Amino acid sequence: MERVEQAKRKKTSNGLTDAAQAYGTSALLILAVLALWQFGIPEGMSSALPKPTLIAVTIWKIAPILWDNVLQTALEALLGFVFGTLAAVLIAIGFVYSRTVARTVYPIAVILRSLPLIALMPFLVSWLGTGIMSKVVLAALTCFFPTLVNMVQGLTSVEPQALELMQTLNANEKQVFWKVRLPYALPFLFTSFKITSSAAVLGAIIGEWLWANVGLGAFIVNAMFNMQGPELWASMMVATALSILAYILAVVGEILIVPWQKNGPKIEVGK
Amino acid sequence: MASVKLEKISKEFQLKDGAVLALNDVNGEIGDREFVSLIGPSGCGKSTVLRLIAGLVPPTNGEIRLHGLTPAAARSQRMYAFVFQDPVMFPWRTVIKNVEMPLEVVGGKTSKERADHAQALLKLVGLQGFEKAMPNQLSGGMKHRAAIARALMLEPPVLLMDEPFGALDEITRDRMNLELLRIWGATNAAVIFVTHSIEEAVFLSDRILVLSPRPGTIVADIPIDLPRPRTLLVKQSEQAFNYSTLVRKKLTEITIAAEIDQFGATPE
Question: What is the CATH number that goes with domain A47-263?
Answer without folding.
Answer: 1.10.3720.10
